[in-house]
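User: Let's play a game. I give you a shape written as tokens, and you guess the letters that built it. Ready? Here's round one.
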């Protein structure tokens, strides 16, 4: 797949899946096909993205007890927590269309990794390094909103690049702006009412994405 008309470093990689059945016959030793079989480049590269997404999910899951502690809980922060958990799962699910991409380069790999890395940073910012020591999640969100909404917007930007530059699919630019703009507003505006509005809008956008997933399937 051409990327900006030029392949990064002038190198393209294409790996074709081989069937183990075709590689192994009754006359051959059982280890023969295992030695000759090769995974696709998608399977190889998706492992890295899956690991980072798994780390983000683990970071969130380990903080559930603290985030929903009744003495410290904040409705807006809790809504963003559940939303971020869901976005991790959606991003993981969105990796599958990449199996149709057979020619890869390093820049495409960086784009694919950008989303999971951004989501992991968002998770780390949202729950902090020491969630047990956070006295008020409302105060924490007020202090961390710039980083959180910025990196969450970055994950969407990488998703846009993945659609256009890796999958070479058409993108509705207006839809991308509608999703990214509120997050940037949340990063800039310190007002709590603005954060509530951004959270509500982003929830609606994510639910619409889920609806489209079900329609596509």
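Assistant: Ready! My guess for every position:
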């Amino acid at each position: 797949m051409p990327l900006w008309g030029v392949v990064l470093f002038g190198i393209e990689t294409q790996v074709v899946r081989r069937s183990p059945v075709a590689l192994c016959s009754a006359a051959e030793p059982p280890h023969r096909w295992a030695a000759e079989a090769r995974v696709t480049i998608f399977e190889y590269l998706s492992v890295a993205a899956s690991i980072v997404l798994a780390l983000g999910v683990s970071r969130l899951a380990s903080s559930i007890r603290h985030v929903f502690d009744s003495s410290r809980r904040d409705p807006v922060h809790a809504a963003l927590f559940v939303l971020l958990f869901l976005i991790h799962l959606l991003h993981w699910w969105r990796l599958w269309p990449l199996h149709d991409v057979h020619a890869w380069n390093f820049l495409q790999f960086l784009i694919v990794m950008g989303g999971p890395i951004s989501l992991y940073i968002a998770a780390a910012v949202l729950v902090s390094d020491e969630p047990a020591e956070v006295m008020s999640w409302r105060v924490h969100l007020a202090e961390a909103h710039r980083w959180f909404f910025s990196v969450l917007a970055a994950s969407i930007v990488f998703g846009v690049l993945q659609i256009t530059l890796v999958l070479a699919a058409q993108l509705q630019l207006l839809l991308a702006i509608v999703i990214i703009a509120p997050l940037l507003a949340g990063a800039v505006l310190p007002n709590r009412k603005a954060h509530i509005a951004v959270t509500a809008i982003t929830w609606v956008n994510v639910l619409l994405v889920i609806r489209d997933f079900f329609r596509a399937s």
